[in-house]
What we know:
The chain is of the alpha/beta class. It has helices spanning about 45-55, 75-80, 105-110, 125-130, 135-145, 165-175, 200-210, 275-280, 285-300, 315-320, and strands at about 10-15, 60-65, 90-95, 115, 150-160, 180-185, 215-220, 230-235, 240-245, 255-260, 265, 275. It holds the Pfam family Radical_SAM.
Amino acid sequence: MEDQFQRKIEYARISVTDRCNLRCRYCRPDHQEILEHKDILTYEELLQICEMFCRLGIRRFKVTGGEPLVRHGCLSFMRSLKQLTGVKQVTLTTNGTLLRPEISKLKEIKIDGINISLDTLNPEKYQKITGSYQLEEVLTSIDAAWEAEIPVKINKVLLPEDTMEDLWPFVERFMEKRKIPVRLIEQMPFGNQKVESAVLTGETILKAIRQSGRSAAKLDTAFGNGPASYYRIQGAVAPLGLIEAVHGNFCAECNRIRLTSAGWLKPCLYSPPTISLRDLLRSGRSEEEILQKIHKEIFEKPVSHHFGEKPSAEEMYRIGG
């Protein structure tokens, strides 16, 4: 379907849990409130809502968390999601720590792609960012997915202290030695917290690449459903993606909605959720009535975020990636 600004909304990010086995410093606050199991959507409820999304023209789904693989039954849910009428694509976003044992099952259910969040290849820095020593497990999981011929992308948040010395290992390991795209994501201000200015921006990264003697040509091709701008870097077999939500506002092309694990519909990442689909389902409302409410909220999706004006009051870990 289209919203009031004629944007075609065909993509939904589905959070199945607010829990995570890592504590990435930019995502999870020190005093987080974890939902009780009864407060999150059951898989049956999730599928019922996704089926309604399909009736409204949503065709592509991303399963997220928290860390989705910490929730028992996540793969069975994805298998059922892929079988819904109208679904064209189901992908997964994960931190990679629990991924390796699930690769064969993901291959079996024909997962359409996996995005793996990884912010550094330095073990010491990884521990400081995540509170975990599982970097090698993540790297092994990436290799296993690649060897299973599952499409993989690496998502790296650009941290305030990052320099090009932090980025070149990503280019070498994934974009040159493996055909794995790397997407660099501008950090967004959530939880009413300002983000410290980063040393690296999309502009400075491309300038540094070109100053190193490599060409960096912008591509017209899209590699997935997201808003990244992609560049072909000389010597690399996979592209580099830049996702600049704050300084490269791409709201005019936004094609997505989000569903939190607690059942809140979020037509815009920045703005507060609009309606509780969990409460509507559990109150016995008819599917047609709920469908009409979803249609209304998607149609009234905000024209743009306001990250450039003030931080969002939302907590990222509650929203899903």
